[in-house]
Amino acid sequence: MVVAALCVAPISGAKRLAPPQNHATAEAPANAEPKPLSTRVVAYQIQATLVPREHKINASETLTYKNLTGQPQQTFPFHLYLNAFQPQSTFMTEVRLDGTRGSSSGTSWDPKHYGSETVTRLEVDGMGDVTKNIHFIHPDDNNTQDRTVFQVTLPTPVAPGASVTFRMDFVDVMPEVVERTGYKRDFYMVGQWFPKIGVWWKNQWNCHQFHAATEFFADFGTFDVKVTVPQDDVVGAAGDLVSSTNNSGGTKTLTFHSEDVHDFSWTASPHFTDVEDFWTGSAGTVRIHLLMSPGNMATAPRYLQALKGTLAYYDKNVGPYPYDRITVVDPPHGALDAGGMEYPTLITAGTAWWMPKGLLTPEVVVAHEFGHQYWYGMVATNEFEEAWLDEGINSYEEVKVMDALYGPKTSVINFPFAQMGDAESQRVSYLSMPDYDPLTRFAWQFVGDQSYGGITYGKTATVLLTLEKLLGENKMRDVMHQYFMRYRFTHPTGADFLKTIDDVSGQNLDWYFNQAVSGTNVLDYEIRDVRSDPVKWYESVSTGPRVYRSYVTVHRKGDFVFPVDVKVTFDDKSSTTEHWDGRDRWIRYTYERSAKVAAAQIDPDHKVWLDRNFFNNSRTVSSYDSTTHKLLNIWVFVNEWISQLVAWIA
Length: 650
Ligand SMILES: [Zn+2]
Hints:
Layout: E1 7-8, E2 42-51, E3 56-66, E4 73-79, H1 90-98, E5 116-124, E6 128-129, E7 134-136, E8 149-158, E9 163-173, E10 182-184, E11 187-190, E12 196-197, E13 199-201, E14 204-206, E15 221-230, E16 234-237, E17 240-246, E18 251-261, E19 266-269, E20 273-281, E21 284-292, H2 300-317, E22 325-329, E23 341-343, E24 346-348, H3 361-379, H4 387-406, E25 413-414, E26 419-420, H5 422-431, H6 449-471, H7 473-487, H8 494-505, H9 510-516, E27 525-534, E28 548-556, E29 564-570, E30 575-580, E31 586-593, E32 597-602, E33 618-620, H10 627-648
Parallel strand pairs: 2-15, 21-22, 22-24
Antiparallel strand pairs: 1-20, 2-3, 3-9, 4-8, 4-12, 5-6, 5-9, 7-8, 10-11, 11-19, 13-14, 15-18, 16-19, 17-18, 20-21, 23-24, 25-26, 27-28, 28-31, 29-30, 29-32, 32-33
Helix pairs in contact: 2-3, 2-4, 3-4, 4-6, 5-6, 6-7, 7-8
The structure holds zinc ion.
Residues 368, 372, 391, 394, 649-650 line the site of zinc ion.
């Protein structure tokens, strides 16, 4: 195992070892103002004080919003995500119906999971106090109890091109860790915690309520955040540490700065061990912080190896990582619900003291959550409406990373008695519920949580793995690289992604996308029948060399039409490969040879990951040995394990 020398030291309260290196300015002339990577629509300044005894955060926020909408704006929507953690919210109503990653359906209400976010004052520069103009809206449903989105109408409109500054005070009540955020004992994972303005997109405001299955969407900008916490807390945050000052009363105030990102999260615990390291890629040096919880240090080298391998893979194959930092938060015992989550330049992982090397969950989670830096973080698609563009593309790249680092057949489970690669795990999760929802469904409109997870993550990955076999690995790598480079920092749509695939491949792939992306078609081919008969079957005594007429019948069981190869092997070991366009429901191949057909196999090179059932893809004339049976036992184990894993990773 390749692990760099670890420098273990707490970061909070300490000076940075080196000044932050602004990658964006690496090629800019000296003294030139760095060119932003993104169109900066928002500038947040937040001052937050943690009140640990009450699990509260008292904060003030100044948001300067630049009106780039091309028209006057008078009404502005804001997210208050923490209000999802209330029994009457849309989020909890949906959890109650069908569960979500941390809670099963029918879960009873536990008051310790109550969370809230209350704006106590809202002023607008030049317009005065507009607190009384706040009212909650419910753009996605008629749930008047949901308080996750409010809108405020200003006395006068903000002209196109002008900026407006909102000043507000707010109070967060943090839940005990639930759905990625909250506290556990003295550990805090503070995500989705401040009033966040919606996005003007497709000529209207896009500010969805917080749903059980939805994640996030926000504009790029700058964050200057001051966090006041107990002096013995070790703090990690999605920004560069600018300063740290001790206050009277046993607290300290840390100041962070971040730019060209669309969110800011932070974490604090007196029990973190900060494992610091560096990685250097094409855009410069990245400072790594692993914030390890007690008892989990054995996993630190595994996290680091996975993280550096993922950084290197993305840098080489997708594009440069332009930030100078990445923090990995290892949640403490009992707080795993805070794990497996992504924020710009800060991700949460997850492990346990007993984690065996043969279970690569810690590695998968790091590869997955880091990958989000590219898709959720920089490309920044709308996760409410097109979750597949983030989670799905990210799951495909997760397979590529994990297979490159840990081997295609052993990248998720690697025991002597059971092994599984990540591509197979994505396929299994897709097949758990393949035909209810297309990839393109809005995240909260899936039939349920299992379909959302299986389709958004597993199906997208499987669709792209199959496409990779169709186009070739190099071409597919070029597709992903071009998509990232063209659309980073721009909020593209699914149409943009599909257009990039067509452009780079030089093909019109509508026939595939219509079935795989916007359709719910399921792909399943089977060998229906294999038989041989003597041509002169009516002769009781054969005269001369025997000739057989052999038949192989292939059936397209599913409604997904896809070209397949069929390899037919004869009992003299000769073989032939047929290519079928799959358009009809079945095809029969007929041969007249001196040898009988011995076996037939669809997709002999295992290119078609979308095929629902691999077991009916082949048939031999003589009965198979017991291998199939053994395989099934492992299959059951792996299936259960994978559905757990998939349910957990966000
Ligand atoms: Zn994810």
